[in-house]
Amino acid sequence: MCGIIGCTGVKCASKILYKGLEDLEYRGYDSAGIAVLDGGKIFSVKRRGRVSEIKSGAEKLRGTSGIGHTRWATHGRPSDENAHPHTAGAFSVVHNGIIENYAVLREELVSEGHVFSSQTDSEVVVHLLNKYYSGDLKAAVLSAVERLKGAFALCILCEGYEGFVAVKYRNPIIVGVGGDALYAASDMPALAGLAESVAVLKDGQIAFASEGKITLCDFNGGAAGLSLSPIPAAARSTRLGGFPHYMIKEINEIPAAVKNTVHAFTEEKCYAALTRAAKKRGGFKDIILCGCGTAYHSALAAAYTAEELLGIPVRAETAGEFRYKKSAANSGTLFVAVSQSGETADTVEAARAAKGAGACVAAVTNVPYSALTGVADIVVPVRAGTEVCVAATKSYCGQIAALALTVTALKGRQAYIKMLAELKDIGAKCSAAISDCMVEAAARACASSSGVYFIGRGIDYPVALEGSLKLKEVSYVPGEGYPAGELKHGTIALIDGGTLTVAVITDKTLAEKTASAIEQIYSRGGRAAVVYASGCAPENLIERAEFAIEVPASSDSISPIVSVIPLQLIAYRTAVILGRDPDKPRNLAKSVTVE
Ligand code: AGP
User: Fold this and answer.
1) Helices and strands (H and E) in the chain: how many
2) Nearest CA, atom 5, ligand 1
3) How many CB atoms within 10 Å of residue 511?
4) Region at 209 (left for phi over 0; alpha for psi -120 to 50; beta for the rest)
5) What is the pLDDT of residues 53-98, one digit of tens each?
6) Atom 8 of ligand 1 has which residue's CA nearest to it?
7) How far apart are CA 560 and CA 296, in angstroms?
């Protein structure tokens, strides 16, 4: 939700930090700031708005150590004052996460004479550091951290200490070494090109980075070992490479995302891990698939086919709801947590809750070093590559592939081998869907509609939900995703000539039923369109549609990988036509690390 970065031992800290913040900007972009140590004193710049707002201010800063932040607001609206770093007394702090007990701490600190200048929860950290500081930095950090409840990744500057301190609790922070320089950042891509070796800090660790050396301790002050490894090639910082936006670049990367995911599943011996775990528990009695937003939609798609294939109860739940359900999982449950980032607080906490209830937890994630993998018993890799656009596209397709392999692995070798074979062909089908897709007319139709509804039945319903989410989040055109049969139970009241309904049809056996829903829309003066798999939609539906987009047919469990592509492309083009920034939609951030 926020991106943080720190560096020391570099020629010009602000230059490195500014560039790092550009890489981290997808994590939040309502304000940004940098603080540096120059001659032992702290100097900073911070502004509301995108990272570019602090460019000229950053250029004026000198010094070889510093910290930076790009924000997605939780407490306090986006403003110059609420932007990080928060500086007071001898300290400056950037924070990613949430300080749950900030109100109590603030009251205490105010009563002691500390003067606050923002409405953020984070500002208490800088005042706590000052409260406990009497010349011993480590002691001050330990005392301050002991008072904090919630989730926090911090980078701290202290006057007189040539370096920075990084703290990790429930939010990610990675430290790195490159030559004589030391770094810390919220994710690997921000360190690519800077650090040669990296270490992912564990919960409850504090790193003191100074004079070419990183020293680790735990929250009790006990020494901890630092084990650095070469920065993974997959963490390479991504660039647009000729595409106008990351969203369209990443849609074009779907074939590679699926191929690499399949390869990683086999290479990391997931089949064996899953079957071993099932055997150990005498077979799973039920499966819960869980995630948020797009990840929930891929979980829902997998649930549709898994129940039929495995013959045990399988359900998908949004992570935010699952967390607070009593007795939702038990020792017979396979709990599959799906998350691109592996950082989403609701999903990570849902996985913790399931594990606490005795379930076997599998993490389906694009980030191998994430908080979610730390909780999981089994990691099912998605290898979509770094996804920069806030709207998930290629990671969704990677998740569908990883989940299809997971489900068939649980069914048995024959089903698994069959799925591997089907997934071999899917890359070519995706490429065809991307290159043949004529979305311009469709996007213009969406851009001029007062609302766009997406409907589908069976496996096409989760795709309808995803198409709707994509369009809403990047273009701000309102609408909903609905099971095709549900529309007539209320939402049909919204249908008029200004609204457009897009039917997704990839299952021939359900096509006529969805066609009836479209007839009901025409009868009420509404407009309709169709995205369909070859040979699956009735001719009269195609002929009458405002637009009709055909994609190659594939088997049920993996059809969403292909059928979602036109919907992603339509959302992208609609956003561009309406002058929106598809990569950084308003009010959003790539991962939401608070509940
Ligand atoms: C997707 O386009 C959204 N930006 C959002 O719904 C996202 O999928 C959700 O926040 C979950 O993120 P995660 O996969 O990183 O857990």
Assistant:
1) 19, 25
2) 293
3) 22
4) beta
5) 999 999 999 999 999 999 988 888 899 999 999 999 999 999 999 9
6) 294
7) 13
Among 251, 323, 340, 584, residue to substitute to test ligand 1 (most atoms within 8 Å of Cβ): 340
> What pLDDT, on the 0 to 100 scale, is given for residue 488?
87
Instruction: List pLDDT tens digits, range 275-331.
Output: 999 999 999 999 999 999 999 999 999 999 999 999 999 999 999 999 888 767 999
Residues with CB under 6 A from ligand 1: 292-295, 339-341, 344, 347, 390-392, 473, 591-592
| Atom number, ligand 1, closest to the C-alpha of residue 473 | 2
Report whether 446 contacts 498 (CB < 8 A): no
Distance in angstroms (rounded) separating the CA atoms of residues 545 and 500: 10
What are 333's strand-pairing partners? 286
For residue 365, the ligand 1 atom closest to its alpha carbon is: 14
Give the residue numbers annotated as catalytic, written as ranges: 2, 590
In the predicted structure, residue 201 carries a pLDDT above the cut 80 = yes
317 Cα: distance to centroid of ligand 1 (angstroms): 14
Contact 528, 522 (CB under 8 A): yes
240-435, which class in CATH?
alpha beta
Predicted pLDDT of residue 237: 58
Which range (49-58, 70-79, 379-388, 404-413) has the least confidence? Answer: 70-79
**DSSP class of residue 593?**
-
Spatial separation of the C-alpha atoms in residues 367 and 392, rounded to whole Å? 14
Q: Would you state the pLDDT for residue 38?
A: 96
Which residues, other chains included, contact 448 with Cβ-Cβ below 8 Å and sequence gap of 6+? Answer: none
Question: What's the number of CA atoms in the CB half-sphere (13 Å) around residue 339?
Answer: 37
For residue 424, report the phi and psi dihedrals to the nearest 5 degrees: -60, -35
Kindly report the CATH number that applies to the domain delimited by 3-236. Answer: 3.60.20.10
Q: Is 566 helix (H, G, I), strand (E, B) or coil?
A: helix
Closest residue CA from atom 7 of ligand 1:
293
Ligand 1 centre to CA of 592 (Å) is 8
| Per-residue pLDDT at 145 exceeds 70 | yes
Domain assignments of the chain as residue spans, ordered by start: 3-236, 240-435, 437-581
Closest ligand 1 atom to Cα of 291: 16
Q: Is the pLDDT of residue 235 over 80?
A: no
Total count of residues recorded for the chain: 595
Interacting residues of 420 by C-beta distance below 8 A, sequence separation 6+: 262, 266, 405
368 vs 328, higher pLDDT: 368
Residue 81 CB neighbours (<10 A): 16
With residue 302 as reference, give the H or E element that holds it: helix 293-310
Rounded CA-CA distance 350/291 in Å is 9
Specify the pairing of strand 527-533 against strand 499-505.
parallel
Looking at residue 51, the DSSP 8-state letter turns out to be G
Distances (CA, A) of 537 to 166, 456, 513: 56, 12, 11
User: How many CB atoms within 10 Å of residue 440?
Assistant: 13
Pocket test for ligand 1, best of 292, 322, 389 (most atoms within 8 A of CB): 292
Q: Which of 591, 593, 594 to mutate to test the pocket of ligand 1 (most atoms within 8 A of CB)?
A: 591
The CATH fold of domain 437-581: Rossmann fold (3.40.50)
The H or E element spanning position 364 is: strand 360-365
Output the DSSP codes for 110-121. Answer: HHTT-----S-S
Nearest CA to ligand 1 atom 6: 293
